[in-house]
Amino acid sequence: MQLLLIHSDYIEYEVKKSTPVAEKIEDSFKQGRLEEALTAFMAVESFDEADPQQVVKQAVAEIEKVATQVKAESVMLYPYAHLSSDLSSPKVAVSVLKSIEKELTGKYNVMRAPFGWYKAFSISCKGHPLSELSRTIRPEGSASCGEAVVVEEKKGEVVSEALKAEDTAKSYWRILTPDGELHDAESFDFTGYDNLRKFVDYEITKNRNIDKAPPHVELMRRLEIADYEPGSDSGNMRYYPKGRLMKSLLENFVIDESTKMGAMEVETPLMYDMNHPTLKKYLDRFPARQYSIESDKRHMFLRFAACFGQFLMNHDMTISYRHLPLKMIEMTRYSFRKEQRGELVGLRRLRAFTMPDMHTLCPDMEGSVSQFGEQYSMCINTLDKIGIDVSDFEVAIRFTRDFYEGNTDFITDLAKKVNKPVLVEMWDTRFFYFVLKFEFNFVDAIAKASALSTVQIDVENAERYDINYIDSNGDTKRPVLLHCSPSGAIERCIYALLEKAAMDAEAGKVPNLPVWLSPTQVRVIPIAERHMEFANKVADALQVRVDIDDREETVGKKIRDAGREWVPYVAVIGDSEVESGKVNVTIRAESEPKKPKKVEMAAEELNERVLSEIGDMPYRSLPLAKLLSMRPKFL
């Protein structure tokens, strides 16, 4: 059932013409008006035929709940087929409407508009925050309880049951040390683990709002990587050429690492039908808010991950035990989550983001645990190559008590792998689709944490999506699923690198980006016009991203600007360099504040050094004009 609840000054209707499915009515039923009423526009759907009484029960509960909130004593029940393109039979619809009317009568002044008639109506909406609400009710719900499920919607936002469960779930917070000991999080001695203490405070208090901008926001703008887009929804960013280059390199790297693990790259749609029975169930099990849109009278949502696209693909595949573990990955450009405004800041938390989303089909739980361990190590290595090592993030491991008791040694080994204490969250009851999950969390300069890599063991969706494989005996079996994002959102990787650099600067170090991700890897600075010819020869000899500062500025300003852009290698060319055939190179990574490290080397030596730092990481050419005089300013 679809419900649209309007708190109105008044609602009135008048029947005009019957349809072939119109219910028979008396003359008194042909028009009606209620003052100060809660109007419930409703469409009974084919899904509701599975258990009409559960739908009635839940619809009545929702109407009563909202009526109490807005203090309405009158209720208008108004059949409105336009809310859905998948309607129930007229017989079921009339029965449900009459049952709702019966349940509410005596509690409220109730009026029901007739079913199956073309009607003219007028309504005056009050316009306060609770005056327009919508509800989706299904007779099949989350978990296996069989009761109706309600998904709340407000202004294009869908709030899943899992998100509401997350807010109310009882968690046991512990610190797991590499020796296997579990310590109470509140009494643990955090001496030497300051970042872990900040992360624990962030997780337990659940304070996600930002009261000041973290340093990366200024840096992403000054370095011309990204900026807010005032012409879009909050949390949707614009990326300048340098930012687009960095994103592309990171995307290619993560895909390459995943394909080395045997993953097949696929692509799936950006939007899905919210009333698709399988997707609806999963929607209620994922703790996130979704964008909701209407398309051809269908209720759609923008994907928040690539899970369901890949699972629908798995459903249609013929899979043998020989194919397992079977991995698929998509670089989602984009995934969408309707994050709350107070949580949105810079690249840390977005509403549209790029997520590498890998899923693995395993033959059984034993196989999934083994794959979980392998992918845990893969995520550590992936972040390390990006420039974020184990000392830069904190580990959270989340599980049900039953899973922990059956896999204690395995979970302890996860703490041993990073060789430091990790935060543990345990539940007595499984609220979500997974029994085990880890995240690597970066704690920024304002003590807020953001999840990067993650892997989850999913025990629900193989059955939900009817995914099967044929075992060695020819029998049909359900796989166990793993969700993995090897790096987390691509934008968050850039955020973490910028925050890490800002904290390095605060500690008296020279801030840097990894050379392979630096938009300009070498800058050549000719002192005068007469040095341009040799500057071009040096640039041509380099097989890296090199540019030339040919602007009519002082050499000092050119050097300072290169420093403000964090260019890893800066080669200054004057008369002595032209004469010797070598260049004077400032190496940023080996410099100290106010004490640059300078080395004289030939262009070939410089080329070899930079190429060795890039190694086997992805490479793309310069994203802007080679000559700085030819570049526009984005800010």
TrEMBL record:
The UniProt catalytic activity note for this protein reads: tRNA(Thr) + L-threonine + ATP = L-threonyl-tRNA(Thr) + AMP + diphosphate + H(+)
EC? Answer: 6.1.1.3
A Pfam family annotated for this UniProt entry: HGTP_anticodon
This protein's record includes keyword RNA-binding: yes
What highest taxon heads this organism's lineage?
Archaea
Domain Aminoacyl-transfer RNA synthetases class-II family profile: start-end pairs: 211-511
Q: How is the cofactor bound?
A: Binds 1 zinc ion per subunit.
Chain positions recorded as Zn(2+) binding sites: C307, H359, H483
Its localization reads:
Cytoplasm
Show the SUPFAM superfamilies listed in the entry.
Answer: Class II aaRS ABD-related, Class II aaRS and biotin synthetases
**Recorded GO terms, molecular function?**
threonine-tRNA ligase activity
* Keywords from the UniProt entry: Aminoacyl-tRNA synthetase, ATP-binding, Cytoplasm, Ligase, Metal-binding, Nucleotide-binding, Protein biosynthesis, RNA-binding, tRNA-binding, Zinc
* Keyword Nucleotide-binding tagged: yes
Q: Which cofactor does it need?
A: Zn(2+)
Which InterPro entries does the entry link to? aa-tRNA-synt_IIb, aa-tRNA-synth_II, aa-tRNA-synth_II/BPL/LPL, Anticodon-bd, Anticodon-bd_dom_sf, DTD-like_sf, Thr-tRNA-ligase_IIa, Threonyl-tRNA_syn_edit_dom_arc
Output the HAMAP family linked to this UniProt entry: Thr_tRNA_synth
Q: How does it assemble?
A: Homodimer.
Write out the similarity annotation: Belongs to the class-II aminoacyl-tRNA synthetase family.
Write the protein's name.
Threonine--tRNA ligase
Native organism: Methanococcoides cohabitans
Please spell out the taxonomic lineage of the organism that makes this protein. Archaea, Methanobacteriati, Methanobacteriota, Stenosarchaea group, Methanomicrobia
